[in-house]
Amino acid sequence: MIPAAFEYYRPKDMAGVLSVLVEHGDDARVLAGGHSLIPMMKLRMAEVPHLIDLQDVEGLRGISVDGNTVRIGAMTTQNEIINDDQLVAAAPIMREAALQIADPQVRYMGTVGGNVANGDPGNDMPGLMQCLDATFHLVGPDGEREVAARDFYEAAYMTDRDDDEVLTAVSFSSTVGGYAYEKQKRKIGDYATAAAAVLLVKDGDTCTSASIAMTNLSDTPIYSEAAGAALVGTSLDDAAVSAAIDAMLGDIDPTQDNRGPIEFKRHAASTILRRAITNAWSRT
Amino acid sequence: MNKELSREERTDALGGMGCKRKRVEDARFTQGKGNYVDDIKLPGMLHGDFVRSPYAHARVVSINTDAAMALDGVIAVLTAADLAPLGLHWMPTLAGDKQMVLADGKVLFQGQEVAFVVAKDRYIAADAVELVEVEYEELPVLTDPFAALESDVVLREDLDPTADGAHGPRKHHNHIFTWEVGEKDATEQVLDEADVVAEEMVYYHRTHPCPLETCGCVASMDKVNGKLTLHGTFQAPHAIRTVVSLISGIEEHNIRVISPDIGGGFGNKVGAYPGYVCSVVASIVTGVPVKWVEDRMENLMTTAFARDYWMKGKISATKEGKITGLWCHTTADHGGFDACADPTKFPAGFMNICTGSYDIPTAYLAVDGVYTNKAPGGVSYRCSFRVTEAAYFIERMIEVLAIELNMDAAELRRINFIRKDQFPYQSALGWEYDSGDYHTAWDKALKAVDYDGLRAEQAQRVEDFKAGKTRKLMGIGLTHFTEIVGAGPVKNCDILGLGMFDSCEIRIHPTGSAIARLGTISQGQGHATTFAQILATEIGLPADSITIEEGDTDTAPYGLGTYGSRSTPVAGAATAMAGRKIRAKAQMIAAYLLEVHDDDVEFDVDRFVVKGAPEKFKTMKEIAFAAYNQAIPGIEPGLEAVSYYDPPNMTYPFGAYICVMDIDVDTGETDIRRFYALDDCGTRINPMIIEGQVHGGLTEALAVALGQEIAYDDMGNVKTGTLMDFFLPTAWEVPNYETDHTVTPSPHHPIGAKGVGESPHVGGVPCFSNAVNDAFRAFGLRHTHMPHDHWRIWKTANDLGLHG
C-alpha cells in the first residue's frame, strides 16, 4: 500500500489547476477529499504522476441557497452538508443521504465534488444528484459549461468530464414534498448493496411528481424515469408501488460481487425502493 | 499510619486480585505513546518488501532482478537461489512441515513470497518490487480440499508421496495427516443402535485474526560482537529466539528477541514468517538493520489464516434426548504448507474437546489434513487450539439433534450437561475436565433473559409472519461452551520440542517495590495490570509498586508466550508460585526481626504478624528493606524468586450465552436485540479487564459469524483482501452486551483462575450462528453455513420459500 512517486501541486486558483491539467492531460488528476483517489494510488491501481490538490483553490467551498436554487461548491465536505441548516431546509434528502456515507472521519474529508466527479458507481451522491435533477458545473481551458447529472455518467469511472476539466459545483432546485434516502450496506463505511433516492409530491391523495434514482446497481447511477412515472397520478396503492419497482428492475443491471449474486441484489433493490417510497410518501 | 487502617482498607490499598484496577498500559496507548515495531527506527536501517505471486499455483520459470537492482537506492534483491547456499530458502513450520521462504521453483498460493527487495526507504522498495520480472507458468489450481484429495495434480512435489509425514502415513500426495481419537467401532455401533441419529455437515469457513497492527520485524546484526537483535510482533518471543537459532545457526545467547508493544495478535503472530527470515538474512548480508512490516493486504492474504474445517458429524440419542454417542470426521484445509500452530502431538489442536459440555459416553473423532492452493496457517484465532471449531461443531450438532428430537434446545442441553458431582470428569475423547457447574450457569442465564417469555414471543412472531403482518423473524441463539486452555502440561504439550510451561521471575527492591518478568507477552490483554494484581495479593506490596515486564529474551525468563488463553493459567500460576517463594523467605526475615520462631508469624494482607499479637508485625516494605540491609543468620541477602510452572492439567472455563436476533428475510439484515454472556473463568483477577475481554471476544465472534471470511475464487484469487470486503465490525455493528458470571475456581491452579480472553469468541460464534439458524427452524431449516452475511441469509430464506 505504498503509492508510486508523483508530483504534488497546490495551486491557489483555477488557472493554476487548468494549466497543469492542460500540460499533462490524463497523467494529471485533481485531488479533493482523497478518500477514493488516495487508496487507489496506494494500491497502485491508479497511477497519477501529477496530483493537483484543490484545497487552496478559491471559491470551491460552501453552500448557498438563493431563492429556490441550491448551489454547493465541489470542495464542500459531507460533514458540512449534514450541518448546514439552510440546506437541510431546502433539500433535507441531502442530509439524510450524507449521514449514510462512510463514517464521521471520512465525512470530515470527503467532498461532494469528489463523490460526484469520480464516477464510482458505489458513491451515493451521483444517484442522489440524478434524483434531484441537479446540474454539474465544469470549467476547462475553453471556459465553463453545465451538464445535467442525468447525462453525466457513461460507465464506471467514465463521465462526460474531459480530462482537462474540473467539476466546480453542483446546483439544483430546492425540494418540495416527501423525500427518502434508503441504503442497505454490510457495515459502516461500505458502499451500498442497494440504495434508493426518492422524491415525491402529493396533491390531495394523488402523487403529482416522483423522482427515483438507484445506487450501485449498475455501472452508473440509475435514474429510473419509468419508476417515477408509474407513481404519478396514483395514490401509491400497492399496484402502483409494485409497478414502480418493476419499472426500476427493468432499468438496473447489477453484477455479482462479494455483496451477493444478482438475484439477491434485485430483491434487495426492490425492498429498499419499497421502503424509500413508503417513507417518502409518509413525509409528503 | 498503617496501624490505623482496617484490614479491608489495607487490602484495598494493595489493588490486588478482584479489584477493578485501571489498566496501567492505557496512559501511553491513549496518548499515542506506545512503541510498536513500526515505531522502531535504527541508524542506517534499510527496508524490505516482497515480490509476491499473483498466481495460486504456478511454476516460477525465471526471475530477473536487473531492472530492480538498477534502481537508485536498491541494495539487494534476494531470491531462493540466494538463500539456498545458506539452507534458508525453506524453513521448518510449527507443524513439522517445511515452508518455502522464497519461491523455490513454484508457488502454491496467491501472495506467496517470491523475492525480497531491500532498499534505502520504503518507497524505493515498493517501486523496486514492481521492477522485478518474474515469468510464471500457470498450473491447475486446487482450492477445494475434497477435490484435492481426488486430484492427480501434485501440490507438494518436494515431498516423497510414499513417506510418512510429521504425523504418520499420508494417503494421497495432497494428504497431510490423519489424526484419530476415541473409539471408532464402539461409536459406530452406538450410532447403529440408537433411537435417534442427527447428521450434518458443519463447515467452519476460513477467516483471519486481522490484528490492527500487522506483522513485522526489525533485524539488526551487529557483526562486531556477533549479536543479532530481532524486534518483532511476536506472541512467543522466546520460541522465536530458539527457532531463529536453529534455522540460522547463530547460538542462542547471541540472539536477543524483543517484542515491544503489540497491537493485537489473536494467533496471527504466533508463527514464523518468511519476512522474519529474509530480514535476518538481509541484515546479516548488509550489516545494517533491516525492517519489514507487511501491509493490510499482505496480512490478510498471506499470514496465518484460521479455521477452514469441514466437520461431518453424527450425534445419537435416546428418544428422551439422552445423548449416547458422537462421531466426527473433519477435512481440514491447511493450504500450501502445513504451518498450523498446535502442540506437536495435536495436529488438529484440541479439537477433541468437541464433546463440549455434555456427558457423551462414546465418541470418535478423525481429522484429515489436506494441502490446497491457499495460504498456510491454521492458527487459533482468539481460541485455544482449534477449540472454536470444536465448540461450533458440538453446539450446532446439539441444535440439529434438538430438531431431530423435536425438543427444546435449552432442555436438551440441560439433560445432557456433565453434572457438578461428575468433576473431575473424564471425557470420551481423552480430557480430564477439572471443574464445572454447568446447570447453575445455565439456569441463571435462562432466567436472566426470561427464556420462556422469549420463546412465546418467537412463536407469536412466526404466526405474525405467516399472517403477513411482519417480514422479520426472531432467532434465539443458545450456547453452552466448555473451553480448554492453559497449554499445557509438559508431559503432553510441546511446540518444536519445547515444553509448554511458563515462568515468572521477581525481584523485590530494597524500598519495597518490585519488578516481575514473565515468559509471556501482552498484545492488549493488560498483563502489566493483572499480573501486578496477582503479585500484590501474594506478596503484600501495592500493585502500583510492581512493574511487570515481558517480551525481552535477554531479561525475561524463558516461556512459551501468549496465545490459547494460557497466560493466566500458566504464567499467572508461575507468578503466584514465585510470589509464594518471596513470601516464604519474607516469613523467615519477619520472624528474625520480631524475634520469634518462623512458625509463630503469619501473613496478613501486607505484613507478617505475630500469631495472637497483631500489634507486633513487620510490613512487607520493612521486610524488603531488611533483606538488603541486615545480616540475617542463615539467610542470603536479597529478596528474589523465580518459578517455572508446569501445569498439572489444563483449565476448563465455560459459559452460557444467549443471543436474541431479528432477521429481515428480504434484505438478510440482522439486528442483535440482546446478547447475554455468562462466563465462568474461575477466580476473577480484574472484573473490568474480564468485561473488556468478553466485549472484544464477542465482537470478533460477531464478525466471524456474520460475515468475516477469507474467500477464494476458483482460480485461487483472494476475494477479501482489503477491509472493504473483509468484515471488521465497528461500534455501529456491535450490540450492547450484558455480562454476567459464576465462579467455579480451578482446583489445581494456585489461585483458581482459568483464563478468559478467548471464551467469548469460542462461545460467541456458535451463539450468533445458532440465533440465525433458530430463526428459520419453524420453517424447516436444519443448518445453514456461516458466515451469515446478508445475501446468504437472504438465500436461506429464499430456499425456504419465504419470498413468496
Automatic annotation (TrEMBL), chain A:
UniProt cross-references to SMART domains, sorted A to Z: CO_deh_flav_C
Cited InterPro entries: CO_DH_flav_C, CO_DH_flav_C_dom_sf, Diverse_Substr_Oxidored, FAD-bd_PCMH, FAD-bd_PCMH-like_sf, FAD-bd_PCMH_sub1, FAD-bd_PCMH_sub2, Mopterin_DH_FAD-bd
Gene Ontology MF: a single term: oxidoreductase activity
Keywords of this entry: FAD, Flavoprotein, Oxidoreductase
Domain FAD-binding PCMH-type: 1-177
Pfam families according to UniProt: CO_deh_flav_C, FAD_binding_5
Domain of life of the organism encoding this protein: Bacteria
Protein's recorded name: Carbon monoxide dehydrogenase
From TrEMBL, chain B:
Name of the top EC class for this enzyme: oxidoreductase
SUPFAM superfamilies with a match to the protein in the record: CO dehydrogenase molybdoprotein N-domain-like (SSF54665), Molybdenum cofactor-binding domain (SSF56003)
Domain Aldehyde oxidase/xanthine dehydrogenase a/b hammerhead intervals: 31-140
Record-listed E.C. numbers: 1.2.5.3
Catalytic activity: CO + a quinone + H2O = a quinol + CO2
Alphabetical UniProt keywords: Copper, Metal-binding, Molybdenum, Oxidoreductase
Gene Ontology MF term list: anaerobic carbon-monoxide dehydrogenase activity; carbon-monoxide oxygenase activity; copper ion binding; iron ion binding; molybdenum ion binding
Cofactor: Mo-molybdopterin cytosine dinucleotide; Cu(+)
Subunit structure: Dimer of heterotrimers. Each heterotrimer consists of a large, a medium and a small subunit.
NCBIfam families, per the entry: CO_dehy_Mo_lg (TIGR02416)
Protein name as annotated: Carbon monoxide dehydrogenase large chain
Organism of provenance: Actibacterium pelagium
